[in-house]
Amino acid sequence: TTAAPTDKGTEAPGTEAPGTEAPTDAPTDAPKVEVTYPLEEKVKLTIGIPSSANVTAICSGYAETPFFKELQKRTGVELEFVEVASKDMNLLFAQNPMPDIIYSYNMATSYPGGIAAALEDKVIIPITEYLDECAPDYKAVLEAKPVDSRVVYVGDEVVSFANYGADKYKATYGMVIRQDWLDDLKMDVPTNADELYTVLKAFKEQKGATYPLSPWNAYVTGGLLNIGMITSSFNLVNTDYHLKDGKIVAGFIQDEARDVLAYLHKLYEEELLDPNFSANDNATQMANFTGGVSGMCVLKISSGLTPVVNAVADQPGFKITPMEPLKTPDGNIAMFSEYGAGAGPSAYITPDCKNVEAAVKFLNYGYTEEGILLYNFGIEGESYEMVDGVPQYTDVISNNPNMNKTQAAWQYTRVLVGSPKIQMNEYLTSYNPGEVQKAALENWANSNAKDHAIPTLVMSGDMASEHSNIESDLKSYKNEMFTKFINGTESLDNWDAFVAQCKALEVDRIVEIKQHFYDEQYSK
User: Fold this and answer.
1) How high is the pLDDT of residue 27?
2) Do the Cβ atoms of 397 and 427 come closer than 8 Å?
3) pLDDT of residue 148
4) Residue 348 CB partners (closer than 8 Å, separation 6+)
5) What angle do CA 224, 230, 235 make, to 5 degrees?
6) Which phi and psi (to 5°) does residue 368 adopt?
7) What is the pLDDT of residue 7?
8) What is the reported pLDDT for 30?
9) Residue 161 DSSP SS3
10) How far is CA 484 from the centre of its chain?
């Protein structure tokens, strides 16, 4: 859920890179035990890692990237990479021996039965007993972020080195609208469903927009509904699972969800919503927005908003405003928006590792002050510079003639992928410079999502398998029916039948299982 932007950890005093400053949100208490880098002993570790086209488009593999060369130099650990396709990562557990470290892998969603099953199957080991002496910086982060850290535990055992999302910027996608059209029409940015309808109608009738709202299909169910970008206006948190007064609720079977779908159907019928939304992709919605076909869409900041801003740079009259999620009926800020919680792909140590202490020390580096900067920004003087005490990417990342920005970030950092680190807030503002992008990071997150977001649940045992089996069919049915309700191929007169079928597909059991693990992990 991901993700999103800065948190920082700590590092042993005196090991900061020359000319750098500690990340602004690092825990203030230095660990009592220090790990000195590079390690004195000569260590070689094997590391199983998903391959990436963003790497192989530029060089032969991870060993040739500036990031991993620098990481090995600073930690004193020689790495031997075992690169496999993401879909084949589980094959590493059948190797004899397994790699010492499994890196940038989402055990919770990709290993059968999840993290607890992996521990029970003895393909990973607990590392709790090593934290005090070998990972004091990581232990400090666990203690400073107890809720965010629940994902690394199975029972009382710490089993992974997690990716922590940034503190501040939890929403990295949202709605955008043509501000220049609003100005021409002397209209304000819409804040609720009624205002949005009025604006979209004016865009169609007075600005010539063919389809005033033209989103990508994934961002209709995923953004407008599941992320709650418009649902608060109907007094609904979102159409996904969410928390309400400590209880987990399935938003998609609430009566308010029917009202949201009826609203979208009305937009669809009047061609205010692109009738091709279910077939649209990101490129289509961007082309429609920049070409005047639409005046509103839903964009990711890096893969959508920044390219759109660049595309209209030669159109001085073209102005964009990132919209806040629609407010509640009584005018309060939205109940929900994207709320990246970090975690996701993490790092694990396998039982075949012969030097667990060294592996733990190596992985601890991503939570030190120096390591956080390396993971987020790369090499000072090469991929970033400190400007007024704040790291900023250089043209090596932002304007590299030999590779695009994504490829450059993969060469010099691990900031775009889950890995054993803490993301910095400064990463997003530097990676997406510009006033529109800064406004997006602020506006899209203006909600009470923290009160309603379900933290990562570590499921185990038969209940985890049961949850996985039920949720797959239920999710497919719900998404299919939502599309049909919006485009009218299924009448909303059949809403009760839809809810009944969700019940038959055991939505109540899903809620019960989620509640069980939520209470178990977060009630204290």
Assistant:
1) 54
2) no
3) 84
4) 101, 102, 105, 107, 118, 124, 159, 160, 161
5) 130
6) -85, 160
7) 32
8) 52
9) strand
10) 28
Return the amino acid letter for 275. Answer: P
Show Cβ contacts of residue 462 under 8 Å, excluding neighbours closer than 6 positions. Answer: none
Q: Work out the number of other CB atoms within 10 angstroms of the CB of residue 134.
A: 21
> What are the residue ranges in the chain where pLDDT is below 70?
1-32, 341-343, 524
What pLDDT, on a 0 to 100 scale, did the predictor assign at position 524?
Answer: 66
Q: Residue 474: which of 501, 512, 513, 514 has the closest Cα?
A: 501
Of the candidates 240, 262, 243, 266, the one whose C-alpha atom is nearest the C-alpha of residue 251 is 240
What pLDDT does residue 32 have? 64
The pair of three-digit structure tokens given for residue 504, joined into one six-digit string = 């038959």
Under a CB-based contact definition with an 8 Å cutoff, are residues 509 and 466 in contact? yes
Q: What is the pLDDT of residue 12?
A: 29
Which residue type does 224 have? L
Give CA–CA dist 393/396, Å, rounded.
8
Type and span of the H or E element at 107: helix 107-110
- Report the 3 state secondary structure along 451-482: HHCCCCCCCCHHHHHHHHHHHHHHHHHHHHHH
Cα torsion for 261, 264, 268, 271, to the nearest 10°? 170
Instruction: Tell which residue, 276, 290, 300, 283, has the closest CA to residue 211.
Output: 276
Please give the structure tokens belonging to residue 367: 């939570």
Burial of 125 from C-beta contacts in 10 A (0-12 / 13-18 / 19+): buried
Residue 36, amino acid = T
Cβ proximity of 234 and 193 under 8 Å: yes
pLDDT of residue 342: 56
Share of the chain above pLDDT 90, in %: 81
Which of 260, 253, 256 is CA-nearest to residue 196?
A: 260
